[in-house]
Amino acid sequence: KKQNLTTIIVFGASGDLAKRKTFPALYELFTKKLLPKHTRIIGYARSPLNREDFLKRIKQYIKSPGDDIAAFEELCEYRSGEYGKPDDFQQMHARVRELEGEMDTASGGKNCGVMRIYYLALPPTTFVEVAGNIKENLYSNDVTNHLVIEKPFGSDRDSSKVLGGQISKYFREEEIFRTDHYLGKDMVKNLMALRFANTFYDAVWNKEYISNVQITFKEKIGTQGRGGYFDEFGIIRDVIQNHLMQVLSIIAMETPKSLDAEDIRDCKAAVLKCIPPATLDETLLGQYTASEDGSEPGYLDDETVRKGSNTPTFAMTTLHIDNDRWRGVPFVVKAGKALEDARVSVRIQFKDMKYPLFPNMARNELVIRISPAEAIYMKTVVKEPGLTNNLALSELDLTYQDRYTHIPIPDAYASLILDVLGTDHSNFVRADELDESWRIFTPLLHQIDNENITPLPYRFGSRGPEGESNFLEVFGGYVKPVL
Length: 483
Ligand code: BG6
Hints:
Elements: E1 3-11, H1 16-31, E2 38-45, H2 51-59, H3 69-75, E3 76-80, H4 86-106, E4 111-120, H5 127-137, E5 144-150, H6 157-167, E6 176-179, H7 186-196, H8 199-204, E7 210-218, H9 227-252, H10 261-273, E8 283-289, E9 314-319, E10 331-336, E11 343-350, E12 365-371, E13 375-383, E14 391-399, H11 400-403, H12 412-421, H13 431-450, E15 456-459, H14 468-476
Parallel strand pairs: 1-2, 1-4, 2-3, 4-5, 5-6, 7-10, 8-15
Antiparallel strand pairs: 7-11, 8-9, 9-10, 11-12, 12-13, 13-14
Helix pairs in contact: 1-12, 4-5, 6-13, 9-10, 9-13, 10-13
The chain binds 6-O-phosphono-beta-D-glucopyranose (BG6).
Residues 181, 219, 238-239, 344, 371 line the site of 6-O-phosphono-beta-D-glucopyranose.
């Protein structure tokens, strides 16, 4: 089978993202024989590392390096240099050409093209400079060029547009892969199959049957040394505007014309267009304080956080989708750090039966657990087994670790890099989706910043601020099951 000659250049190779995610994902693909046969990987960063130190660093987060780790190392090399220096990039270009020549010889000239992947594991403040330097000194019209970048893409609608405009001077939209790692998670990738490959879900997926939808992200950890970054952004920009909105758009979109990436992204952008901006009236904001026993520090105790900061570490807000499918169905998105549990899930509550035969029915709920322990379960009313006619709320339960015991769930980044190698944009964020998502949150974010809205305190390890427990009922139309 003919394959591309592929060079993957990881910028920021000595940094956190690269060592925690990019290199372990590349190794996972290598182990599963999913990297193209002719692949070379160049790590690039400012730190002057020797080969040994570099390899040590990238192996730090590879959980169980197998016998093939030495062969993987063979593919990798390290170069140090500046991000803005044309010279450094020109020299790297010479090396890339050399590697492409070697791969061409090894393939006996039997290849179907050359691909260069520029993977920016860098802070967004460097994106424009690096993208420009790549375009002028590393890019070639004779090869396929893919630029991979990861959020944050700006901090509001305008700044995101400015950043997008600057990058688009150098790279065309079809060359850009905007990563949202939630789109690489197996259960998120499963949402399309669940919705569009099952008659019975497809049939009830609308306002006639669905009462409300909750998309929840809970983390037990606080800022953990990332206070400086986090304090500039807050939980809405960090998690809700991107990860949760991506999940929401797949849950709520219309049926795409085909499985083509552009048809899918057209539908995702279209449903976001139907969502009016989030409002403060339907939002609850919180910030965590030290745990009850004092063992866990509060957000403001983090020395990298601004004194007296009002940045929310918890937010829940109700969104409305003004289209025929969803009019009147509240979508509650909720995210928080330092909570009592770590879990990301979608909960879809169905309406009461119109003409119930049984009294006191509980509502059906479809729960899709994205992490940890992927699962889909449907809360279903049954007759309690035994010599009784009592009803009980039980579950039709598809817990992956019970059903798919021998299939390990791949890392999100491995799945996404595989898509970049295959030039598949389905699981990457298109510019218009990004813009729509910022449109929804920018007025609320500006109001929070300009009016310095004080978030409600909640204890580290609790469920969130006061008001959290009845928010769903008051603003989300949720009815607690009582059976
Ligand atoms: C990142 C956020 O994008 O996603 C972090 O910046 C958050 O604050 C992380 O912890 C969550 O990702 P995951 O894959 O652990 O759910």
